[in-house]
């Protein structure tokens, strides 16, 4: 729980039942004429309160523009964003009371202050008085980013990575019901990254706060997110639970080891399958092959017909990174994820 056992930020009446975040039909173009670049092309999605949602996409997909539009830092050409029921464009100050954010490369901390003083200052901006419980909560945040032993030192002596950690802790110290984290693990070591995973899950599970997380660290996203929204070329191409997206590609790729040479394997599967990742293992050959759902026995028959005895075969379990790459490379929706995408037709930083 947080310092008071609940989220202390004032909640408007409009926010009591509204989703934490509603992004609807966002459009944004940079430049004019033939040189114009479309950063957002009808982007829509919602985030339920108390959930952790990952916003993913390759460089240039539109993630940063979407995040900054949600925070009121950019004015979209069309569309709306509401946070806890408050329209960001029409009432930004009211919306800001509900939001804390750390954007990639932004380290808005005061270098002459200590980490503990920074946390106390940023909490005060939210109107949170310093109490014994809140001081303990701040100590917990500093422990999360592995800075408990430097809590009383001036940031002037800190590395950029350490300042990144303080900025992250300050974002969480405001105790807002909605938190945007853009590349929060950048500059974190293994221990701090593991602590961050636990803290992000605790924000949702124990404090009921909502987290929108944008990161290239797929392990972190898969570990902490309930759902992911994948963007590509300014559009949402997938919106589903993590397990569902990973499951789209489950049991279709196999790791196989046979008694025989790689040349024999290639000849046996030529024209029917495309084996890859060959490894010679003494008198055996290991390889990987992607098999459509209804052609598994065609694969085994082809190997047997070439006199290749299979010594081992196992399904290669996919992960979120694989699902992400397949979805963005194909540049469109999959049949299962299309149902979850919001009903819309289809620079700064990474657009």
Automatic annotation (TrEMBL):
PROSITE patterns linked to this entry: ABC_TRANSPORTER_1, ABC_TRANSPORTER_2
Domain ABC transporter, chain residue ranges per copy: 21-258
Region span, Disordered: 328-351
Keywords tagged on the record: ATP-binding, Nucleotide-binding, Transport
SUPFAM superfamilies attached to this UniProt entry: P-loop containing nucleoside triphosphate hydrolases
Biased composition (Basic and acidic residues): 328-339
Pfam families the record matches: ABC_tran (PF00005)
Keyword ATP-binding tagged: yes
The protein's name in its UniProt record: ABC transporter ATP-binding protein
Organism this protein belongs to: Salinirubellus salinus
Lineage, highest ranks first: Archaea, Methanobacteriati, Methanobacteriota, Stenosarchaea group, Halobacteria
């Amino acid at each position: 729980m947080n310092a008071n056992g609940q989220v202390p930020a004032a909640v408007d009446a409009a926010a009591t039942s509204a989703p934490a975040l509603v992004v609807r039909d966002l459009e944004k173009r940079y430049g004019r004429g033939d040189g114009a670049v479309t950063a957002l092309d009808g982007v829509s999605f919602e985030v339920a309160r108390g959930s952790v949602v990952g916003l993913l996409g390759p460089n240039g997909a539109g993630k940063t523009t979407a995040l900054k539009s949600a925070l009121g830092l950019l004015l979209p050409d069309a569309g709306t964003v509401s946070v806890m029921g408050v329209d960001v464009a029409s009432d930004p100050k009211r919306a800001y009371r509900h939001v804390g954010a750390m954007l990639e490369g932004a380290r808005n901390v005061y270098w002459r202050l200590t980490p503990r003083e920074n946390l106390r200052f940023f909490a005060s901006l939210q109107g949170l008085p310093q109490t014994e419980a809140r001081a303990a909560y701040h100590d917990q945040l500093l422990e999360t980013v592995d800075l408990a032993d430097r809590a009383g030192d001036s940031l002037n002596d800190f590395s950029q990575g350490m300042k990144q950690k303080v900025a992250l802790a300050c974002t969480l110290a405001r105790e807002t019901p909605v938190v945007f984290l853009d590349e929060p693990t950048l500059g974190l070591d293994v221990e701090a990254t593991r602590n961050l995973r636990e803290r992000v899950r605790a924000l949702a599970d124990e404090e009921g706060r909502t987290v929108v997380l944008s990161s290239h660290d797929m392990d972190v996203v898969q570990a902490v997110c309930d759902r992911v929204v994948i963007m590509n070329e300014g559009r949402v191409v997938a919106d589903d639970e993590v397990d569902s997206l990973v499951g789209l590609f489950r049991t279709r790729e196999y790791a196989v080891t046979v008694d025989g040479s790689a040349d024999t394997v290639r000849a046996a599967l030529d024209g029917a399958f495309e084996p890859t990742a060959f490894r010679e293992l003494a008198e055996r050959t290991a390889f990987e092959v992607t098999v459509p759902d209804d052609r598994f026995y065609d694969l085994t028959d082809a190997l047997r017909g070439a006199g290749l005895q299979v010594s081992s075969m196992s399904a290669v379990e996919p992960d979120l990174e694989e699902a992400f790459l397949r979805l963005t490379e194909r540049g469109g929706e999959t049949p299962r994820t299309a149902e979850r995408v919001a009903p819309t037709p289809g620079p700064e930083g990474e657009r």
